[in-house]
Structures are given as structure tokens and as C-alpha cells.
Amino acid sequence: MTEYIEFDENERDCLQELMNISYGSATAAIADIINKEATLSIPNIQTVNTKQFKEYLKEKLGNQVDYFITNQLISGSFCGETMFVIDRKSTENLALEFDLEGEELKDDDELKDVILEISNIITSTTLSKLAGLIDSSISFSPPQIEIVRDSNSFYRSYINEYSHIIIISTDIIFQEQNIRGELLILSKDNATIYLKEALNKILEEF
């Protein structure tokens, strides 16, 4: 079995700071679009295996409500996948900021269009900023979206993709509008090794 690629305390602190900067850029971009102020939680960094990732998703999606989930593949020296998770109520509140109203707020296709646009901005802004900070070059696939309630059916597609997973997550909160979403970055082993080396290079410069 492949051993975990762990981060030591200095590497974790450095990555957390880089993610603060990267997520901050994405939040500012979204706030400019809907002209509302947003806050970020401190980025949470976890190293898990596939079983633990399943438990993470089960807890995340365990409230018996609909979630809109987008995923987007990352290619390049830092490769993996992003997931943006937002519940239906937050989605509807976000759609109001895009001037949807009435029956449009019950139309899943209309809501999906809003989340795809927001997710694409958050992902591309966050990852592009992070790639610049770690001197990496990356590209993105078009985002995909689905509505899920059962974590088991959603989890299946991830079983064979990742042996170990670095979860980097943060809540993006628009308090007054009652909007809360979470961005997850799933990193493959080779990308994690690249990231670890990039973090140590940054630490050596300070």
C-alpha cells in the first residue's frame, strides 16, 4: 500500500496561507459580480484514503436535502479535481442575486446554469492564483454538474481515481444572503509530491 504523503507543520501552514490568498481572489471576483460582501473560513487541509473520503462525503451530504455539485478536472503539474458543493436553499438565494424569480427558482436547469457560472469563476480564479504562487502551469476541463442527495451513488465514480486524497476546503459565506458553499480540491499523489516540493521551495526563500 502506498504510504500517505503527509505535510509537516511548516508545509501545512504555508499551504494554508497560499490557499487564503487564492480563495480570497475568488471570493472578491464573486463579490464584484453580485455586489455583496463575502467571508471565508480558514482553509481546512486533510489527507485521507478513499474510505475516509467516502465518510467525509457521507457526512457532507447527510442532511437529506438536494445538493448541487460541480466537478472540474485539473491538468498540468498540479493535477486533480475540484468540487463545488452548495445546497438547494443557498443555490436559490444565489439565483436571486442573478435576478431569477418565481418559477425560475424552481427550474433545475436555470439553477444549474447559475452554479456552473459561479463554480467556474471560483475554480479558475482560485486554481490560477495557486498555480502562479507555486510556479505551476495548469488547465481546466469544462465544469460538470449534478444534483445529488445520496452520497453513495455520488462516491462511486471516485473509487478508482484516487488512492489517497488531499482535501483542501473552505466555506465561502455570503452572510446577509444566507449563501454557503464549499470548494474542495482533490489532489492525486504525483500532484501532491509536486505541491510538497513547491512549498519547501517557498519556505527556503524565507
Automatic annotation (TrEMBL):
Question: What's this protein's name?
Answer: Chemotaxis protein CheC
Keywords from the named record: Chemotaxis, Hydrolase
CDD domains, per database record: CheC_ClassII (cd17910)
Checking InterPro entries in the record gives: CheC-like_sf, CheX-like_dom, CheZ_family_phosphatases
In its UniProt record, which GO terms are filed under biological process?
Answer: chemotaxis
Q: What single Pfam family name could you report for this chain, choosing any that match?
A: CheX
A molecular function (GO) term: hydrolase activity
What is the scientific name of the source organism? Answer: Halarcobacter mediterraneus
Q: Which domain of life is it from?
A: Bacteria
- Which residue intervals define the domain Chemotaxis phosphatase CheX-like in the entry? 74-145
